[in-house]
Design brief:
about 180 residues; alpha/beta; five-stranded parallel β-sheet; globular; binds flavin mononucleotide
């Protein structure tokens, strides 16, 4: 029985997304008292403040899943040196209407994988700005700017040996962070 339910938000809708692969692989490094569920963001409408009083079912579902979680895990690509629009759209939905921010106070971790050399560093920094405004305590260290290259994953989609060692430490710190901050 898990004591900590984590809502995982993947910032890519791509079928063969490296970030989804990373999200699926890293959760296996967590202790059994943690369980993880990816929230669905591909059916959310574009955020429109006019709809705040009458949100779509997909928006209601997203907010219920975020509110029911003890922690958050964001795994995102970098698009044009920032976060993908689909991720920002999901965050905007779950943070509104004003005063009903589903993220408030929930501890978070941020990870990202990119084929580019800086491994989503700028996207993660932008995301941290947004999360700070939304009152989300976000793990500062270790940072995880994952460069997608041979050996990151093995043929079964699990983490390769070197990346596993690095990310096990990341997960250990994340677990401690969630335990410290979860109500
Ligand atoms: C619209 C777009 C913008 C991108 N911009 C960046 C970027 O700023 N930095 C970067 O490292 N990679 C960039 N990329 C490449 C992505 O890192 C790469 O497509 C990655 O595989 C996307 O993540 P995913 O595999 O999880 O979908 C961009 C890709 C797209 C489609």
């Amino acid at each position: 029985m898990s004591n900590y339910q984590i809502a995982v938000v993947v910032g890519s809708l791509r079928k063969d997304s490296f970030n989804r692969l990373l999200a699926n692989a890293i959760v296996k490094l967590a202790p059994s008292e943690f369980s993880f569920k990816q929230v669905k963001i591909d059916d959310l409408p574009l955020y429109n403040q006019d709809d705040d009083a009458n949100p779509a079912e997909s928006v209601k579902r997203l907010k219920i899943e975020i509110k029911g979680a003890q922690g958050l895990l964001f795994v995102t690509p970098e698009y044009n040196r920032s976060i993908p629009g689909v991720l920002k759209n999901a965050i905007d939905h779950a943070s509104r209407p004003y005063g009903q921010n589903a993220f408030s106070g929930k501890p978070a971790g941020v990870l990202g994988a990119s084929v580019g050399a800086i491994g989503t560093a700028l996207a993660q920094q932008h995301l941290r700005n947004v999360l700070a405004y939304l009152d989300v305590p976000t793990l500062g260290q270790p940072e995880a700017f994952i460069h997608v290259k041979d050996g990151l994953f093995d043929e079964t989609g699990n983490l390769g040996a070197d990346s596993k060692k690095f990310l096990q430490n990341w997960m250990d710190q994340y677990v401690a962070w969630v335990k410290k901050h979860a109500a």
